[in-house]
Design goal:
This protein is mainly alpha-helical. The protein has helices spanning about 1-15, 25-35, 40-55, 60-65, 65-70, 80-95, 110-120, 130-140, 145-155, 160-175, 215-225, 240-245; strands spanning about 230, 250-255, 255-260. A hairpin with a 2-residue loop joins strand 2 (about 250-255) and strand 3.
Length: about 260
């Protein structure tokens, strides 16, 4: 049966050695999910443990302040995620974990459901890019989020909560990949409508970083992180600095700028 093939595949080939897979507390899993949103797994492997060594609990991040959290984010990219983690830590420290995790800054439906599945064992679907790809290729058509959730439940039958989520995620990340899928190794190949890439499927490409405004923002933020004292705004790109201030990643006082 499909369910036994998927479960067997996950048992033998799942990415069980990823360091955050051993975590069962909400904060550690939240940090991993936020880091993984727009950063390759290999880079998160290096940054996750280091970040949690500094901030093992939300209270630690809240007490350290936004500048410390942003600085600890290092080269993971998209530093607004660090600011949102800090803001979440402040809320959790002050009010406790909200009943609806989507009430936390920057936390959407997938991340909220993924945390509940991994930490609480909730038997709920969670759709991210890899899982959506698997669901759509198996069905042979584009799916709404609700449609993908229904397929998620069918494909993961026999697995529950954390194992069901991670089995389908790992399948999409390592076998049913965006390009050159390894269909011969897929435990779902017998019921897959496409046996490969969905007709009309396109890969989204990230805008060029070199010479971009993102790079300029990154350069300014690196300067602020490395500085032992506030930096003269004359030495910083004005537009990039203003953008960082708007995102809560920098502050300007008089003629100098620093992390918040």
């Amino acid at each position: 049966m499909v369910r036994s093939l998927l479960a067997d595949w996950y048992s033998r080939h799942g990415r069980h050695d990823l360091p955050w897979r051993a975590a069962r507390d909400r904060w550690s899993v939240l940090v991993s999910e936020v880091m993984l949103q727009q950063t390759p797994v290999a880079r998160v492997e290096k940054g996750w443990a280091r970040f949690l060594a500094l901030f093992p609990a939300p209270t630690d991040a809240a007490e350290a302040g936004p500048g410390a959290v942003i600085s600890a984010w290092g080269n993971l990219g998209y530093p607004r995620r660090a600011r949102r983690l800090y803001d979440s830590a402040v809320i959790i420290t002050r009010d406790g974990w909200p009943q609806d995790l989507e009430d936390l800054p920057g936390i959407g439906r997938y991340t909220a459901c993924a945390i509940r599945a991994q930490v609480d064992g909730a038997n709920i679907p969670a759709i991210e890019v890899n899982i959506r790809r698997v669901c759509e290729r198996v069905e042979g058509r584009r799916l709404t989020t609700r449609g993908a959730e229904a397929t998620f439940a069918r494909l993961g039958r026999g697995l529950r909560g954390r194992d069901r989520l991670l089995a389908l995620m790992d399948l999409g990340a390592t076998v049913c990949t965006a390009s050159d899928p390894l269909c011969v190794e897929c435990p779902l190949r017998r019921r897959c409508a496409t046996k490969g890439v969905l007709v009309g499927e396109t890969r989204s490409r990230q805008a060029r970083y070199e010479g971009s405004f993102r790079q300029c923002r990154g350069d300014v933020l690196r300067t602020l992180r490395a500085a032992a004292e506030p930096v003269s705004i004359v030495d910083l790109d004005d537009k990039a600095l203003c953008s960082l201030v708007d995102d809560g990643l920098a502050v300007v006082k008089g003629s100098t700028a620093s992390l918040p």
